[in-house]
Amino acid sequence: MRLSIIGTGYVGLTTGACFAEVGHHVVCVDNDEAKVRLLRAGGIPIYEPGLEELVHANVAAGRLEFTDSIAEGVEKSDVVFIAVPTPPNPDGSVDLSFIEKVAREIAGAMTSYKIVVDKSTVPVKTGEKVAETIKRYCRAAVEFDVVSNPEFLREGFAVQDLMKPDRIVIGVRSQRPVAAMKEIYAPFNAPIIVTDINSAELIKHASNSFLALKISYINAISILCEATGANVVEVANGMGMDSRIGRRFLDAGLGFGGSCFPKDLSAFIKIAEQLGYDFRLLKEVQRINAEQMDRFVKKISDTLWVLKDKTLGVLGLAFKQNTDDVRNSPAIELCQRLLREGAKLRVHDPKAMEKAKAVLQGVTYVEDMNAVAEGCDALVIATEWEQFKQLDLERARRALTHPIMFDGRNLFDPAEMERAGWIYKSVGR
Ligand code: UDX
User: Fold this and answer.
1) Across the 429 residues of the chain, what is the mean pLDDT of every consecutive 10-residue run?
2) Entry pTM
3) Does the Cβ of 313 fall within 6 Å of ligand 1?
4) What is the Cα–Cα distance from 428 to 13, expressed in whole angstroms?
5) If one looks up domain 210-425 in CATH, what number appears?
6) What gap in Å lies between CA 397 and CA 424, rounded to an integer?
7) How far does residue 305's CA lie from ligand 1's centre (Å)?
8) Where are the domains of the chain?
9) Does domain 2-190 have CATH number 3.40.50.720?
């Protein structure tokens, strides 16, 4: 099918590449001319495993192209996806101005029937507003349908999540766009659920908030584990074997961050408030997440006593593994807290050092993870990168003034670490 995607960020670019990969013709549109130039020249603005290969192969096959013109995208497609940012306002509500502007521009460019699909994460009832806006700004005779099709991809696993989705949610007002939407997704062999638009929009916020709740839940359990000598990983394993609960998103640590969970939680709390419901359960999820960081910083200062003029080696800056994204990264927040306490930091991340430099200054960036510990008083693990498990522990132990490690992501085995002579403090174990 002929598709266009407005917005070439994480969601737009990876979705566009995956749609092209299964045979659709895709025009990716972005109003950032520099980004479009970069993409046309074969550059990829984000790090996402497998994305670069996918983009290059589909551009070469003539199925994927880039433009800064919405009119061109609309003209060359039957289905127009909106994948623009929905950033938070200072009060936690969602800034929908990009969506509104794009809806107007799509409306102005439409000359024949189009299906306009919202992929961005939006508050319930946004689809109604988008439909009203398009109706107001398009030529009278042009017909269209608005569809809600939320995206559930995780950064770092975006290609994998898009190619093998758990489910596809399609929210519609009438049956007219359903066949085309099913055709677009047929190659992905995933279950498709067709709902009304409001339900589809709610599914997205309800899902992300539930996952955040799961993380805060296990982080709260980690407090009880530390108070009793129990092991939160074993508790999570035991809970997760119940198929009604499941093991995923039960990893205790520094708490959740990123561009989605914190923002979506605040938005959902605000949406509920506007609908007359005080969603206190989710406020507690936020509180537990904030306190998890406080508790970890306290663990470090309780052990090292005065942090002023101590040097700490920090492994991890991205908000999670497999990404260079540092937006709302718990690792960056931890670094900033340690700097405020007067500590000096030597930091490393396999992918996120360049992006971190824009938000984290006054630290020493170290290219080799095995060199981070040199001259440090302790090591801190802040992101769950798989390669940190390959750290040369013996070299690190010798490089440190004292072999102390604070592991905020539970990457190592406490018994083995102690046997190897480490003072090892992790979360909930
Ligand atoms: C999330 C949702 O998973 C995805 O469906 C949605 O489309 C966008 O938001 P993402 O933000 O990319 O995706 O990352 P995710 O893998 O969900 O991790 C979010 C945060 O939770 C990270 O900071 C991660 O470290 C943390 N986390 C995750 C935990 O602390 N424990 C866990 O068990 C899982």
Assistant:
1) 97 98 98 97 94 98 98 98 96 95 98 97 96 94 96 94 97 98 98 98 98 98 98 98 98 97 96 97 98 98 96 98 95 98 98 97 98 98 98 97 97 97 98
2) 0.95
3) no
4) 38
5) 3.40.50.720
6) 11
7) 32
8) 2-190, 210-425
9) yes
